[in-house]
Design a protein that fits this description.
Layout (H helix, E strand, L loop, with lengths): L6 H7 L13 H9 L13 H6 L2 H25 L3 H8 L2 E3 L2 E6 L2 E6 L4 E3 L5 H13 L9 E3 L6 H22 L3 H7 L4 E2 L8 E8 L2 E8 L8 E7 L2 H4 L2 H21 L14
Antiparallel strand pairs: 1-2, 2-3, 3-4, 5-9, 6-7, 7-8, 8-9
Helix pairs in contact: 1-2, 4-6, 6-10, 7-10
Bound molecules: iron/sulfur cluster.
């Protein structure tokens, strides 16, 4: 069964009447929502059954990814219930009180109790919850060095870098190219801080995704014959405080959050051609 590769491919299946019967203002918005699994194709009453069945592969694939993710999350919750959270809090510099460990994720309080139950001031994105748990379980709590390196420069990053580019840097660049408010959102919604331009970039924003795992987004605007570009940088201590697999998940999870935000504001063209975790 073919899978739609992007929101525009889904849009091509629709009758483009913008009738709103699916609950979205336009067919384009509906296409974006289907691609991000917020809507199902069969919620458009104008589509025939054969088309819905032909293109249901995406949903099945998405279900498998989500099931694997949820199982892994459950395992991590059990692991958390089996460690001494007070000691873990000391190790990573988090707060521990009322049987709960709390730290800041993207500037907002994020906590877990001794049974593995999560508490947060923000919506709990599972792709952020996984690195949060790993940070508590395995993080060494080393101080931030202030020296930035690319994902490639982290231990185990070189081999994963081609995939990291594909799942994180390239789709995030598409968002930055198309959605003009991205960098304002990074500052105002995600608690980022615009810093002095680094590596001769035009914009540099530091996000404190986890307290000792800051991430810097650097963006270069297009210039005459040169395309724009975007790179992510991490503190050189990042791989001691979080395993490289979790740093990857964090980058891809954030990218997905930014894409969703842009979609919500009517920019379906930013959506990457594949689910970042497939
Ligand atoms: S119900 Fe279908 S045709 Fe109508 S706006 Fe939604 S997607 Fe478009």
């Amino acid at each position: 069964m073919p899978k739609p590769k992007n929101a525009m491919e889904i849009f091509q299946l629709l009758n483009k009447s913008n009738c709103r019967e699916c609950g979205r203002k336009t067919c384009l918005a509906f296409a974006g929502a289907v691609f991000m699994s917020q809507k199902r194709l069969d919620e458009c009453p104008k589509l025939d059954k054969a088309t819905i069945e032909r293109f249901s592969g995406k949903a099945e694939n998405q279900n498998t990814i989500e099931q694997n993710r949820d199982e892994y999350l459950e395992k991590l919750k059990n692991d958390i219930a089996n460690i001494d959270l007070a000691i873990a809090a000391k190790r990573i510099g988090a707060r521990f009180s009322d049987n709960k460990l709390t730290l800041k994720v993207l500037g907002k309080a994020f906590g877990v109790d001794t049974k593995g139950k999560l508490f947060a001031d923000i919506h709990i994105n599972p792709w952020v919850a996984i690195p949060f748990f790993n940070y508590i379980i395995d993080g060494r709590g080393l101080p931030v060095s202030g020296r930035w390196v690319s994902f490639r420069g982290l231990k185990g990053g070189k081999e994963r870098y081609p995939l990291f580019q594909k799942r994180c840097e390239e789709p995030m660049k598409r968002v930055a190219d198309t959605y003009p408010d991205l960098f304002d959102d990074l500052v105002h919604i995600f608690g980022g801080k615009q810093v002095e331009k680094q590596f001769e970039s035009d914009i540099s924003v530091v996000l404190h995704v986890l307290p000792r795992v800051p991430m810097m987004v650097c963006y270069w605007l297009p210039e005459e014959s040169l395309e724009s570009s975007l790179n992510l940088f991490f503190d050189e201590s990042a791989d001691k405080n979080l395993a490289i697999g979790s740093i990857f998940t964090l980058g891809a999870g954030l990218t997905q959050m930014f894409e969703k935000l842009a979609l919500r504001h009517g920019f379906p063209e930013v959506v990457s051609s594949q689910n970042p975790f497939s």
